[in-house]
Design a protein that fits this description.
15 strands, five-stranded antiparallel sheet, six-stranded mixed sheet, 20% strand, alpha/beta
């Protein structure tokens, strides 16, 4: 059966260890076909000869989803317990009705399907997030404007990445599909806000050049051991930072307990949390009056 865009496939030479969606098919001069692939559960871009691909059945796709879902169950329970403790601690201080204020998030994603999943996670945890689907190579062009408009506490820059075929030099940024684009985005963000405490930046995807992204100004980045990271791993790191009180420090080791890829997938620097308690709880919504153009 012919492979076509949208199909879910596996690579025979890798034992179908990762499932991919077919993005595009290119015909070579020798009439062979090269298929561009993106992971359906991991943030990986790859290409493969058509002959190496096999179509996955619906049953195999569902089984793969169940495996990842089970891996995230404990993480979700841990996050929920943390959220519940914060809610209990925010009410009744000195007889006042308290409220929570997690960190505000700006999330740029090269994959629209993943972006929707990420925004659902933020909503589930009560975190205000602004999400934009922007191609990895274009993200750095929009960073400054969006940071000034939204004024987030945390910036997530992600999408897809991966080592190029036959790339042997892991030190060379040109060995990666999108790592240099993530570096450009982080550098652009740091021109707006240089402080690692004022703006937390989480950047990268599968197999990304961890050292280059971290050196460009990120607080946390992937991938220290050039391994695959799950689609929601950057979100888990972001949620941990957003829900950690401002008087406490978030470590890479703490984040690793919440992600599928662990410390080998996302690492970084000690970072101050962005969560604040408040009291009393606001009773009225803010409504700006007058002419917005009036001086």
């Amino acid at each position: 059966m012919a492979i076509k865009p949208g199909d879910i496939v596996g690579r025979k030479s890798y034992g179908c260890d990762v499932l991919f969606k077919v993005c595009d098919i290119e015909e070579n001069r020798n009439e062979e076909k090269t298929v561009l692939l993106k992971g359906i559960n991991v943030r990986l871009l790859a290409d493969s000869p058509e002959a190496d691909l096999v179509l996955m059945s619906e049953e195999e796709v569902e089984k793969d989803k169940e495996v990842f879902a089970r891996k995230f169950e404990e993480s979700d329970r841990s996050m929920t317990r943390s959220m519940t403790r914060k809610k209990r601690g925010s009410g009744g201080r000195q007889g006042l009705n308290g409220f929570m204020q997690p960190g505000r998030v700006l999330h740029l994603d090269g994959d629209g399907e993943y972006l929707k999943l990420c925004l659902k996670e933020y909503e589930k945890m009560g975190i205000g997030a602004f999400g934009y689907e922007i191609k990895e190579s274009e993200q750095y062009k929009h960073i400054k404007r969006l940071l000034r408009e939204i004024k987030p506490d945390i910036l997530v820059v992600t999408g897809h990445d991966g080592l190029l075929k036959d790339s042997n030099d892991l030190n060379d940024i040109n060995s990666y599909r999108n790592s240099y684009n993530f570096v450009l985005s982080v550098k652009a963000a740091r021109e707006v806000q240089p402080s690692l405490d004022e703006l937390i930046i989480i950047a990268g995807a599968c197999q990304s050049h961890y050292e280059a992204i971290l050196e460009s100004g990120a607080n946390f980045a992937s991938s220290p051991n050039r391994i695959l990271i799950h689609a929601l791993d950057p979100v888990k790191a972001c949620i941990k930072a957003a829900l950690t009180p401002i008087n406490k420090i978030v470590s890479a080791e703490e984040i690793s307990k919440l992600t599928i890829s662990g410390i080998n997938g996302i690492g970084g620097l000690q970072t101050r949390g962005k969560y604040r308690d408040g009291a009393p709880k606001p009773r009225y919504k803010y409504k700006q009056g007058g002419d917005v153009h009036e001086v």
